[in-house]
Amino acid sequence: MHERFLYPKILEKWILKSIGHKWRDYKCYLKGRHYSDDANITDLHNNCPEDVVQDQWISLVNFWRSDEGQERSTKSKLSHKKAKTKPIHTSGTKSHARIYEELKKSLQRSPTRTELYLECHQHKKEANVTERNKEIVAQQDNLEMNLDEDPVAQVLGKDQYGRVRGFGLGVKPSDLSEPSGSGYRNGLNMTTSEETTSMYLIRQLKEQMETLQKCVVRQDKTIKKLKRKLSNNESFGSSDLNFDEYSSDERSTEGEHDNDDDE
User: Fold this and answer.
1) CA-CA distance, 101 to 93, in Å (whole number)?
2) What is the DSSP secondary structure assignment for residue 9, as one 8-state letter?
3) DSSP H helical segments within the chain, as ranges?
4) The model's pTM
5) Domain check: are 146 and 210 in the same one?
6) Minimal CA–CA distance to 115: which of 140, 93, 138, 98?
7) What is the total count of domains within the chain?
8) Are the C-beta atoms of residues 144 and 179 closer than 8 Å to each other?
9) Bias category Polar residues: which stretches (predicted)?
10) Which of 83, 108, 130 is the last residue in one of the domains?
C-alpha cells in the first residue's frame, strides 16, 4: 500500500479497517448477485464476475460451500435479524466526525457519546424515535460518565473489546481520555505538523517533476522538427525553436534549477 499511495502513517490503522469493511461489503454484494446455495458448483465457478480474478472467485465459492462457510453464514443471518431490532443509522453519508464537530459548535462544548449516538440514530420527528432511544434520552441527566456506565452502555450493553459504539470507525477506548470526548477530539487531528510538512514538500517535488517532464517533451518535439527540416534541406528560423510555447511557470522552474546548480 505504501508503494502506491501517499498518506500520513497515523492514518494507516483507520485505512486498513476501512478497507476491511469495504472488502466484506463487496463479498456480500457478490454473494447476493452471483451465488446461490442451490446452484451447481461448476456453474458457479463459471459465473465469475468481470471484475474478479477467476482463481479468487473459485476459492471464494468453495469457501461459501464449505462447512465453515455455511456455519459462518448461519451465524451472520442470526446476527442480522437481531440487528433489525436496534436503532437505525440515520446520518446517511455524513461521518461521525463531521456530526461531532457540528454538535460541538451548536452546543458550544464537546458532546457526550450519548448526544452523538442520538444524533446519528434518530430522526428529527418524535414519531420515528425508537423505544431504545427514548430510554437513552431518559438516562441522559449525567453528562460526566465513563463508557461502561453512560446511558448508551446501560441500554445497548457494554462495548466490545477495542471498540467504542457510536464514535465511528477506528475509535478505541484509549482514544477517549474523558467522557466529554476530548481524547476523540484530539484524535481527529490525525496529521502531525511533521507529516503535513513532508506531504507538502513531496507534492511540490511532484509538481516540479511534471513541469520538467513537459519541458523535455516539448524540447524533444522541437529537436525532431529541426532534424526533419535539416534532412529535407529546408531553412528554419528562430520561430521553429518554439521558445514561446514554454509557460512562465516552466521558465521560472528552470530558472530555479539553474540557480540551484550555480550554488
Assistant:
1) 15
2) G
3) 12-34, 41-46, 54-65, 67-83, 96-107, 113-121, 131-138, 151-156, 182-188, 193-231, 248-262
4) 0.47
5) no
6) 140
7) 3
8) yes
9) 232-241
10) 83
Distance CA 136, CA 115 (A): 9
pLDDT per residue as tens digits for the range 247-261? 444 444 445 544 554
Predicted confidence at residue 27, as pLDDT, reads: 92
Mean pLDDT, rounded, of the chain: 72
Q: Could you tell me if residue 3 is inside a domain?
A: no
Q: Of 132, 156, 188, which residue sits at a domain end?
A: 188
Question: Residue 242 and residue 192: Cα distance in Å, rounded?
Answer: 45
Q: Which residues contact 1 (CB under 8 A, 6 or more apart)?
A: 15
Amino acid sitting at position 142: N
What is the pLDDT at residue 106?
A: 87
Q: Distance (Å, rounded) from C-alpha 209 to C-alpha 253?
A: 10
Q: Is the pLDDT of residue 204 over 90?
A: no
Is 4 contained in some domain?
Answer: no
**Residue 90 domain flag:** no
Which comes out higher in pLDDT, residue 60 or 155?
A: 60
**Distance of alpha carbon 159 from alpha carbon 148, whole angstroms:** 8
Determine if residue 92 is left, alpha or beta; phi over 0 gives left, psi from -120 to 50 gives alpha, anything else beta: left
Domain of 241, in residue numbers: 193-262
